[in-house]
Specification:
alpha+beta, two-stranded antiparallel sheet, 3 helices, 8 strands
Length: about 140
């Protein structure tokens, strides 16, 4: 179950959504301009045991969670010229509730079947059996 109270726990929502470089499953895009649409290509999913990642399976439904944070701390700290300036504790982040609400709005997304069809049966009857036809029987896995 996702949680937002302990950042070092296994199911911390920010890590769950962003993925992990050590598990070869990183899902993030930096957007430096407000109100700009971006595309994120995902082809892996983190394994539940957090020791790796697995490829997405075709024709499988997945829930999509999103996470956002701004770079206010970085921007503010680099331009602090006021003697009364107090550095923010960190970036403004989307809450777990917001991430879950958006996942509910998005719904389950199903991957496409990108595998080519394969002949599972191919049979040609004796071509000399008829003078005006050749009978071919075949079946596909789709």
């Amino acid at each position: 179950m996702l949680q937002d109270s302990n950042p070092s726990a296994d199911c911390y929502y920010e890590d769950f959504v962003k993925g992990s470089a050590s598990e070869s499953a990183v899902f993030s895009v930096e957007v430096h301009q407000a109100y700009r649409n971006v595309d994120l290509q995902m082809n892996k999913i983190r394994q539940a045991d957090h020791v790796g990642s697995a490829s997405l399976q075709s024709e499988t439904g997945y829930k999509i969670y999103c996470f956002a944070e701004d770079d206010w701390k970085i921007e503010a700290d680099s331009h602090s010229s006021s003697p009364n300036y107090l550095s923010p504790s960190g970036p403004n982040k989307a809450t777990l509730t917001d991430s879950q609400s958006l996942a509910t709005l998005i719904g389950t997304m199903t991957t496409l079947d990108e595998a080519p069809p394969v002949f599972t049966k191919l049979k040609i009857q004796d071509p000399t059996a008829a003078n005006n036809a050749i009978a071919v029987t075949f079946a596909l896995n789709e």
